Amino acid sequence: MMHFTYILECADRSLYVGSTNDLEKRLKQHNGAKSGAHYTKIRRPVILKHFERFRTFAKARAREAEIKRLTRKQKLNLIDGR
Questions:
Q1: What confidence tens digit (pLDDT) does each residue in 40-59 have?
Q2: Using CA atoms, how far apart are residues 34 and 38, in angstroms rounded to an integer?
Q3: pLDDT value of residue 37
Q4: If you write DSSP's letter for every residue of the chain in order, what string do you get?
Q5: Can you give the pLDDT at residue 71?
Q6: Region of residue 72 (left: phi > 0; alpha: psi -120 to 50; beta: else)
Q7: Phi and psi of 11, rounded to 5°?
Q8: Which is higher by pLDDT, 71 or 32?
Q9: Which domain holds residue 63?
Q10: How many separate domains does the chain show?
Q11: Which positions ≥6 away from 5 have C-beta within 8 Å?
């Protein structure tokens, strides 16, 4: 099973970082389900801008924490592949 760390861009242009083991399902939750994260629920629609694959959830969560510590500019550079 693969695990993912991802960056979403919200309708207000803010960025959201998360991790999951089912990226497609999680995107649907962020965009439409009542169970989506509160942050994205009030900033819909969201667009997937970047994701990375990991073999373990622990590695995906560690990468999530690492990305969350980045500045907005650094996150945008990551999204742009710089």
A1: 999 999 999 999 999 999 99
A2: 9
A3: 85
A4: --EEEEEEE-TTS-EEEEEES-HHHHHHHHHT-TTS-HHHHTS---EEEEEEEESSHHHHHHHHHHHHTS-HHHHHHHHTT-
A5: 98
A6: alpha
A7: -55, -30
A8: 71
A9: 3-79
A10: 1
A11: 17, 18, 19, 51, 52, 54, 60, 61, 63, 64, 67
Tens-digit pLDDT profile for residues 15-43: 999 999 999 999 999 999 887 789 999 99
CATH of the domain at 31: 3.40.1440.10
Residue type present at position 12: D
Count CB neighbours of 3 within 10 A.
Answer: 20
Residue 55 sits at φ, ψ, to 5 deg, of -80, -25
d(CA 22, CA 80): 23
**Contact, 72 vs 14, CB < 8 A?**
no
